[in-house]
Amino acid sequence: MGEIIRHEINEEYAYSGFVEVGDFVFLTFCVGNVGQSVESQVEGALDNMSDRLKEVNLTLDSVVKVDVLLRDVWDIPVMEKVFKRRFKGNYPARKTISTDFAHVGGPDGLKVQIDGIAYKQKKD
User: Which domains are seen in the chain, by residue range?
Assistant: First the structure.
């Protein structure tokens, strides 16, 4: 299996922001632009994911699976519009879930969170 490398460890809430193990990177709590429009929050979440991936020399092209959590399931078309723009046909497998976030901003705060798995292609 190899070494497990944990990044962005949050002791207060007991989680890692992302974890490298073997050929994979597991990303959680990717959010951004909280309090703005759903479209802006999807962009911000993907920016957050992209920034984390850059730390391990990867890009969104490496993402193979995402779980998208939305406050309102009717925002799926907005999320898909952003995904088309950002992933440019290299879409990850996706599950979309509607949830009420327990977030300090309440209903007007966090509307989108994305978790993902990225593949670290082996160098020959």
Answer: 4-119 (3.30.1330.40)
